Amino acid sequence: MTAEHTRLQEAREQQVPWKKWGPYLSERQWGTVREDYSDSGNAWDYFTHDHARSRAYRWGEDGLGGISDDRQLLCFALALWNGQDPILKERLFGLTNSEGNHGEDVKEYYFYLDSTPTHSYMKYLYKYPQSAYPYDQLVAANQGRSRNELEYELLDTGLFDQDRYFDVFVEYAKASPEDVLIQISVHNRGPEPATLHVLPTVWFRNVWSWGGNPPRPVLRQAAAGDGGGVIAASHPELGERFFYAEGSPALLFTENETNTERLFDTANRTPYVKDGINNAIVHGRQDAVNAEKTGTKASVHDLLTVGAGECQTLRLRLSDAAPAASKSTRGGPFDSFDGLMKARRQEADEFYASVIPSSLNADAANVMRQALAGMLWSKQFYYYDVDKWLEERGANPFKRGRRMAPRNEHWHHMYNADILSMPDKWEYPWYAAWDLAFHVLALTLVDEDFGKQQLDLMLKAEYLHPSGQIPAYEWNFGDVNPPVHAWSTIFTYRLEQVRRGQGDLDWLERCFQKLLLNFTWWVNRKDRSGNNVFEGGFLGLDNIGVFDRSAPLPTGGYLEQADGTAWMALYCQNMLEICAELAQHRPAYAEMTLKFVEHYLYIASSMMHAGDDVGMSHPARPLTCTCHGAPSVSCRACSRLIAIHLSSVSRLTPRNCAACSTVYTCCS
Q: What contacts 289, CB < 8 A, 6 or more positions away?
């Protein structure tokens, strides 16, 4: 058993909090539904990238290559300034949905290079240009292009010509669950020496500005130890933490408070605000940071001049050990630093050697390892109390005279405050339930406990709708996505059987009970005619339909979808397999297997005979090679069906082909 496997076992069996600290910051909190309090529901324009440096977030935090605890109370991330940019580089920049000629798109180059499942070792790379970042140019150029043209990328600006950029590597290694070593290596890839301001930053998520008068945490400069500067962090729930910086760097303090003067032309409620460190570094305003060395956001400021082709390294440590204890037990916070960092790198190598098939060559093994690292880096603390969010925007569903919310008003039961796997922490910094079902299979290869927990979360009372619907995504929790949760559940159970010799039967049974609620929701809500042909919504590939299948039809009719029907056939198969597995150990489930056999046969028969026995595919074309549609226009007055042959690439579902049939009101 490798050292990393031992840590996973300790986390599972002894509740040792090896996963308490991890890459749980978002890459983009601005432009999300959670932060949107507009009447229109235009989240992209309500909270912009330009606002992000000055405006405190309500529901989460973002940062560059950062980490946080699993409740995101205390955060760490990197900030950089090349002396040319108009602002500090504190977060990734990208185009909003309306700015990009192909929609939203991050315009940065960053890489998740490595991570173990307990995040005992992690590595991240950000490529930072040495010239001014072209924010306005990227927006203008992409807005001026049509959908038929290529996107205007950062490389197209010439910013990386002659290799005039920095490679900034960030590595993390855990000495213990509460002791994280941080190493920042800055490589100048350019032909000349270049200067870089490096500002490792710690801050508290703002939980004190939204009512309730909670105790306010505080960061303060502690007495410098032998290793250099020390920032002490005191939080009423998290306790005491200490952030050590090697050498004699300047320590800058401000508050994680909105700069209302800049954004809304109203007086600030505190003299020090979220963009105070930005204003001190970029604009030379020393009055923007607190001379008393206290606040809720603080940066270590190192000014580096890196020679051409050279590298400089910074060492930091975030620990629960106070300076005196650190000195007495380890001889100072950096004495054992290099040895621990080397050991964790080696342990990561040993762990992945046990995971990656030996049949892969070195290049393929590296691809697999970095792909898994990307999955592990894409964990995020996701916080969204929908009931509170609705109340704050005056849309409490139980109050008279309420305002209409632009979305999610029927999901007021939801309270999410968990570590979740994101599709992409910049483009999709919110979970999507059916994406998550696929993520779990990869995650289970390295951390089956986390994979099973992800499937569990979607079925918890705080997520699953009382009707039985699984939430889709924050833009519309009520949207309909393919029902693949049961498929992922039985697949995960089978993987565990192979790895351990037996599966977690209690977990399988618990999931099955909740999946029954969701299966019943599909049967009762998405088969309005009772003919086993199912409606749905967003059930296939992105943006490939001639109209929005989640929206009401302009004719007033409704859509019966072969892909929705095919997904339900798969759902029956998965539930049958789960039920049969449970019945082998718990005979009470034996009778239920018949239910899913019957459902599957009903659905299969409907797919063959839909549309006056035309079926769900054009008869002249095979089901197995392409998705074909044979929609029928039905007059509700005369009930006459007129077949319209429509080919589409809607979505090929497992064992079934996707097509659709539409029912219109046409007599008028």
A: 252, 253, 254, 272, 276, 277, 280
